Amino acid sequence: MQGIVRKVYIPIIDVTTNRPVEKFTFQIRSLVAGLTDEALRNYETTINGADVETYLRSFLLKISVCDSMLTPNPPECIFAIMMELEESVDQPSSAQQEWPWVHGEESEITVPQPSLVPLKTMDAGILKMQLFVEEADEKSIPASQTSLVSDRGKDPI
Q1: Domain, as residue range, for 78
Q2: Is residue 47 part of a domain?
Q3: What CATH number does residue 24 fall under?
Q4: pLDDT tens-digit series, residues 78-124
Q5: Which InterPro entries did the record assign (predicted)?
Q6: Is the distance from CB of 132 to CB of 25 less than 8 angstroms?
Q7: Is the residue at 156 inside a domain?
Q8: Is the CB of residue 117 less than 8 Å from the CB of residue 132?
Q9: What is the dihedral of CA 51, 53, 59, 64, to 10 degrees?
Q10: Within a domain: residue 89?
Q11: Where are the alpha helices (DSSP H) in the chain?
């Protein structure tokens, strides 16, 4: 399964409306695809497996600290992990794998009227990654939490 993932999505879904209120997107571009083995051996890069692991860890940590840039989500939200595969790859089936593959629908990851918030970018020559979040302009937040939204960015007295 190497080199077949184009994007990884983590939609945050409001269970009351069954619609995404946020969607985190990891966009992965490898410039290795299409290079011959000889070209790969001759290609100089400063990135190795440990570096990739460190970059991925820093991307995941960025998700945990980005709540200050986003409005609060409604209570009772769930999340999913979805992948977009390269078009040239045959879609895997549950029969081929040890875990079940479920075909996702575009509506499961489409955020209504989104605002785009870039979170992190990494360019290591042959590997490029971006992390951004799409946030719904209007989230169905209960009245008891509206003060949290309106007070965001203000210093306490």
Answers
A1: 5-150
A2: yes
A3: 3.30.900.10
A4: 999 998 887 766 666 555 566 666 777 888 889 989 999 999 988 87
A5: HORMA_dom (IPR003511), HORMA_dom_sf (IPR036570), Mad2-like (IPR045091)
A6: yes
A7: no
A8: yes
A9: -130
A10: yes
A11: 37-42, 49-65, 146-150
